[in-house]
Specification:
Helix 4 packs across helix 5. The chain has helices at about 1-20, 25-55, 65-80, 95-105, 105-115, 130-135, 140-145, 175-185; strands spanning about 85-90, 115-125, 150, 160-165, 170, 170-175. Strand 5 (about 170) and strand 6 form a beta hairpin. By secondary structure, the protein is α+β, with helices and mostly antiparallel strands. About 20% of the residues are buried. It has 8 helices and 6 strands; from the N terminus they run αααβααβααββββα.
Amino acid sequence: MKKMVLTAFLGFSAIAFSQQVKNNPEVRETDKALLVQADHAELEAKKKAAEENSKLPKPYNPKADAEKDLQNLIAKAKKEKKNIMIQAGGNWCIWCLRFNNFVQTTPELKKMVDDNYLYYHLNYSPDNKNEKIFAKYGNPGDKFGYPVFIVLDKNGKMIHIQNSELLEEGKGYSLEKVKEFFNQWTPKS
């Protein structure tokens, strides 16, 4: 008897629930309104990112011969006793452009970079993925995303890979975290 009552109760509950959902047009309209609002917010965010992207300098050159450029930088680094800071990413990457702009427009950071590093923007884009060079450093973009920083000593030996996410703060970068990162990898004379 208990089984019959329980089965009947579950059966009626399922029917009642399905009827309530099927016959409630307000639920459908609300769902549609939420989807439209989410689509609108997403489109607005993409529009703002595109506007910001269009205003920032584009330091990556997909046509560059990165292997040759890095060999020249290593020769120069030996003479100048500086390390090489590779910022890997592309002009498509808003966080890459933000970092470049942050360093270039913050005098304290720009001085740190100019005094201690030869800086190179290693392109990763559909036009030029620089697969051979990225493979040489263990494909850090696959692991950390972009930008990712590869620090070389004056002889071209990789001494550090930095996940840029650890330097972020809000929709930009932390001055203190970036200073600490740059200070940590300066050449030890």
